[in-house]
Automatic annotation (TrEMBL):
GO terms for molecular function: UDP-glucosyltransferase activity. Its EC number is 2.4.1.-. This is Glycosyltransferase. CDD domains: GT1_Gtf-like. Keywords: Glycosyltransferase, Transferase. InterPro entries: UDP-glycosyltransf_plant (IPR050481), UDP_glucos_trans (IPR002213), UDP_glycos_trans_CS (IPR035595). Belongs to the UDP-glycosyltransferase family. Gene3D superfamilies: Glycogen Phosphorylase B. Pfam families: UDPGT. It comes from the Eukaryota.
Amino acid sequence: MKVGLVILPMPARSHLASTVEFAKRINKHNRFAVTILTMAPPFPGSTPLPDSFHDSISSSGLDIRFQDLPRVDPPGDPSSEAFISVYIAGHAGHVRDTIRRLQSSVRVAALVVDLFGTSMMDVGDELGVPTYLFFTCGAALLALMLRIPALDSEIESEFEDLEEDVEVPGLGRIPPLIMPSPMMNKKDEGYGWFVEHSRRFRRMKGLIVNTFRELEWSALDAVGEGRCLSDHPTPPVFPVGPVLVLEEKDPSHPCIEWLDTQPSRSVVFLCFGTMGDMPEAQVKEIALGLERSGHRFLCAVRVPHRSDQSGTADLEEALPEGFAERTKGRGLVWPRWVPQTAILSHGAIGGFVSHCGWNSCLESLWFGVPILAWPLDAEQRLNGFELGNKVGAAVELRLDYRGGGIVDAAEVAWGVRRLMEDDEEGKRVREKAMEVRAAGRAAVEDGGSSSDALRRLTEQLLAYGGETFMENIKQSLHIT
């Protein structure tokens, strides 16, 4: 009987993408029967699981399959910080039923859950299945989250009201305002969920992290040595990254065709991810800033749709008058989805203006492209801070995290120049990005740090599969 793994990712495209790649990597030698449980996307306007994910699995020839869970009604306001945690928790009965059915045909060695799915530990405990965390973010956030329950007890005020920096093992002292958005309001239900997720991390059988030692050695050491938890042993840590989805370059895509006409490393690429719609006022400032920077640019930005389904008309209305004509030849504005990794891999790209979602950070560094950090939400502020201050492969925009508001054109132009120009700072971040590129690729090769972590994880899971099988036999024979 084969050893089974059940994986429950968050119902978001970026999380699903890294989950599918992780499943392919852990099952490279077809030692497992992997089942990826998928939930219906709960957010307004969300699309079903793309065919590309199914095609990726089918073409791999690996024993991996998708299992759609029955639909659960979304729990109220999707803008609530607690929304996704409550939504995932509502699937507990369906996850339990699915694992029970699987146990009749495979030895289920583990249930692997996402950051917001720790409530499923109760299901794993009930069924005697060890639960692992697949942490799709970086080790800096993991170190912070392991520390959060203690910070919650030690600090009575709101974090955003603190005047002094907060000490986090492996990170040093960090500004309170770069903490993840769910931590900014202790009265909000989402804060309680965030703390509870953090508490449950310590009970996992293992922490699988989408990072690599050479990128985040300080945070990984702090977590692995138990310095982030003073009152509980830390589970084993497996940094298996970078786990990336690398698209094949389509030479006929208009953005790729345009990049083919540009000089090497001359273009700054601006993209804010799948959730990165911008208000019209901000789009106008971005356009003016790119124009004033004097550098070539590819700007993939969207505004909330008002007129046509593609968003093209809305974007054209948001751009400054005469902008397209003034920047013709050195700039391209694209209003729809773009093949981000294919663009980052292009030789014409010299810098990336990013919201600093973790997948985007890893993709950019995989290709040696330095980052201009423009965080928008979630843990992105922490990512930008770490890449700029600790890693040295990013430049940070000077953002008002307390007041918010529109980032003006002058600041955009200033940031692009710092990233792209051939001065000491520009050279430094470009060199560092190339160093990280080499280290990340070495990490996943045979004998690399992440390859070794994956091997250790595989051995542990196979061992648990054998133990689970024997325990089930004992129970069926009433042996104690």
